[in-house]
Design brief:
4-stranded antiparallel β-sheet; alpha+beta
Length: 189
C-alpha cells in the first residue's frame, strides 16, 4: 500500500500572504529607522560641538589666554586656517589658543597653539550660526565669551528642518545650553 506524502514547500497563496506581511512590516519600519539614524547623526554632531565648546572654555581658564573656535574651509591642509565671514560652519572649524596677536582672531601657526581640528559635518547636516558667532567664538580666561555681551547661537539641522533640529545657545557668561527638537530656527539671525 502506497502512502501519500505531502510535498515540501509553500503553496502560492501562502507565499503571497507572507510577502504581503513582510512588505507591510518593512513599509512601516524603514521610515522610523531612517528617522532614528538622522536623529543619531544630529545628536552626535551636537555632542561633538558641545565637547569642543567645553574644551575651549576650560583651556582658556587653564592657559589664562583667549581660546577661539573659528570656521575653516581647509581643515585637511597641513596648516589649516580660519576663513571667511560665513555663518555656515559645515566645512569644519579649528579650536586654538590665541597666544599671539589678539586683534586678528585668526589662527597663526607661528604664535598660536592649535588644540583641535574639526573635520566637516556628516553629509546632510548643516551648522549655522547667528551674527554673534558668525566667524568665530572666543572664550576669555574667566570663561566668558568675548562676543560683545550678545547671545551666541548655533543651529544644527538636516533636511527635516527645525522640528527635528538641535541648537546651542551660549550666554555672555560662557555657559552653553542645548536645545533639542522644535528649535526656534535653523537659520539663526
Amino acid at each position: 500500500m502506497k502512502q501519500y506524502r505531502k510535498p515540501d514547500g509553500f503553496t502560492l497563496p501562502e507565499m503571497l500572504i507572507t510577502v504581503s506581511i513582510i512588505s507591510i512590516v518593512l513599509a512601516t519600519a524603514v521610515p522610523s529607522i531612517s528617522s532614528a539614524i538622522k536623529d543619531n547623526r544630529l545628536v552626535t554632531q551636537l555632542n561633538a560641538v558641545m565637547a569642543d565648546i567645553y574644551l575651549a572654555r576650560s583651556e582658556a581658564a587653564k592657559r589664562d589666554t583667549r581660546v577661539i573656535l573659528c570656521r575653516s574651509g581647509n581643515t585637511a591642509a597641513a596648516v589649516p586656517s580660519c576663513s571667511g565671514n560665513s555663518r555656515i560652519w559645515t566645512s569644519g572649524y579649528l579650536v586654538f589658543a590665541d597666544d599671539g596677536n589678539y586683534s586678528n582672531n585668526t589662527y597663526d601657526a607661528g604664535t598660536d597653539t592649535l588644540l583641535r581640528v574639526v573635520q566637516p559635518a556628516a553629509d546632510g547636516i548643516k551648522l549655522r550660526t547667528n551674527w554673534t558667532w558668525n566667524r568665530n567664538l572666543e572664550f576669555n580666561p574667566d570663561g566668558s565669551t568675548n562676543e560683545g555681551g550678545a547671545l551666541a547661537v548655533m543651529s544644527i539641522c538636516d533636511d527635516r528642518g527645525k522640528p527635528d533640529g538641535r541648537q546651542i545657545q551660549i550666554a555672555p557668561n560662557g555657559i552653553p545650553k542645548m536645545f533639542a527638537k522644535d528649535i526656534s530656527t535653523c537659520y539663526p539671525g
